[in-house]
Predict the structure.
Amino acid sequence: MTAVSGLGQRVDADEARARVRKRYRAEARFKAYGIGAIAFAALFLVVLLADIVTKALPAFTVTHLVIEAPVTAETVDPDGSRQAASLARGDYLKPLREVYQGFFPEVSGRAPRRELNGLLSSGAADELRAQVMADPSLIGKTVKTRALVSDDADLYYKGVVTDVVEEPGEAVATPSATSGEVVVTTSTPAFADDLAEIKAELSETARKRRFEVDRIRTLREGILADKPSAELALREAQGGGDATRITVAQNVLAKIDSDAQSLQAQMETLAGEAADFEARFKDSGGAEKLDEKLPSRLLAINGGIVKITSLAADRVEGVTLTPLKSQDAAQPNAWKLLTYETPETPAGSATSRSPGSRR
């Protein structure tokens, strides 16, 4: 009897120890899970903070142009006294703009020059003013200074405005001129892939226009659905002779008609654009004209920049933004095609991408 009792006690003790070990293992797993969860959360937090900091850093920097500007007494010292009050009233932006415009001699005309000047901030001359006021002896000299660029230009240099895709040239490219309208021909169909890409862009743009037409049509139908009740309200107001209710009902009805007409005009415009894009997509022959509704393409060749207005498989036509240094044939990889993904005029917009916004 005693032996049996001792055996039972040993069995109970073994089971108890097994349960304790099992509980310890469960606690260890629970701790490991907790530590793992905390480590994962900490890692996620580090990644999140790094992403926030990386994206926020450009906001703490600004873009300047380094310009050597001639500072004349007539421009910056209207009283000729070299006193702070006179220097503070000087026109420091004028010499900066004159030098800046000299970088782009091909830009002429009031409107183009206004757009060019718009790339400089209204505060572009602040540093030059501070330099001259701190040292009036700079008057009469050419001063190296920094000019703050506009918001749009700053965002562009930071890569925020649009993605830019660069493609090195894979053939010999020969320009027909160095300024004005230029035709660049290539020894092989170097632009065949770009032409196919443009065709695909036309098809996708047409699809988006059709989708927008359907969306506006649905919106217009919803507005017109309220017209019968508005007409009924007007008749009831007229029957009751209530001038206030009549005026309100007339205004509601006029608003419905006005909104419906506006949406109809938008639908017709978008439908026309969609039809045009579809026709251009189906036309497989010849060159494709580029407009402000498609991504912009520039050709960097022989030290100049050509904005492409027409593109075929083995040639492009365009206008120079920066004059070319020569008409020499550019060898493969000595020129490149730049594609600005954001169109100058987005879908449904009547305004183009412009440098008008300033600091």
About this structure: The beta strands are 64-70, 142-148, 164-168, 173-175, 181-186, 288-289, 296-301, 304-311, 315-322, 336-340.
